[in-house]
Amino acid sequence: MLDTATRLFYELGIHAAGIDRIIAEAGVAKATFYKHFPSKDELVVAYIEEQDRLGREAVATLPKQPPRESIAAIMGRISEAVVAGGWRGCPFLNAAAEYPDPTSPVRRAIDARRVWYHDSLRKLLAEDGDPAPSVTASLLVALSDGLLESAYLDDPEKIPALVREGVDRLLERR
C-alpha cells in the first residue's frame, strides 16, 4: 500500500491521489487499508517518514571521510537523485506545499527531516572548524532546496556541476 501511495503521491500530488485509487492500484480491501491507515493524513505521514528513512540510510552508507568530503558526498546525493530520471521535485517540499499548516502532522514529519538534515551538516561543519556552522548549514539546506526544485524546473543534467560549485563556494572562505 505504501509503495503504491508513494508512487501516486509523487506522480500526481498528494491531494490529487485519492484513497480509492490508492486502494484499487494496491489491490487491497478498503477495510485492510483503513486498518493500517485510519486517515489519509496518517498515510501521508507514513510516506514522508519512509522517504526520510530512506534518505537517512543512504547518508549512513556513505563512506567515512573528512568532514568537507562528507558534506560534498551528502550534497552529491542531490545529483544522483535528479539525473536518475522521472524527477518531479523534492518529495518533502512538494508535500509541504500541499500542507501549509505548520502544526499539521505532515509538516511536523517534514520539519523533523529538515532538522536532521541541518544538524547533520552543522555537525560536519563544526568538525571542519567552520566559524558559524549553523549559518553555513542553513545556507547548504537552502542551496539543496533550490537545486532540488531547479532540477525539476530546468535541466537536471546541469545540477551536478551546480552542486559541486555551490559546495565549493560556500566552503572556500576558510
Structure notes:
The structure is a single chain. This protein has 174 residues and is an all-alpha fold. It contains nine helices and no strands. The protein has helices spanning 2-12, 19-26, 30-36, 40-60, 67-83, 91-98, 105-127, 133-153, 159-171. Helix 5 packs across helix 7 (105-127). The radius of gyration is 18 Å and the shape is elongated. It starts with a helix and ends with a helix. The model has no long low-confidence stretch (mean pLDDT 95).
Produce the secondary structure layout.
Blueprint: H1 2-12, H2 19-26, H3 30-36, H4 40-60, H5 67-83, H6 91-98, H7 105-127, H8 133-153, H9 159-171
Helix pairs in contact: 1-2, 1-4, 4-7, 5-7, 5-8, 5-9, 6-7, 7-8, 8-9
**What is the share of helical residues?**
over 70%
> Tally the helices: what do you get?
9
Structural class: mainly alpha
Q: How large is the radius of gyration?
A: 18 Å
The largest β sheet comes out as:
none
- Give a count of the beta strands, DSSP E runs of length 2 or more: 0
β-strand percent reads under 5%
Succession of helices and strands: HHHHHHHHH
Ranges where pLDDT stays below 50 over 5 or more residues in a row are none
Mean pLDDT: 95
Large-scale geometry: elongated
Give the N-terminus to C-terminus distance in angstroms: 49 Å
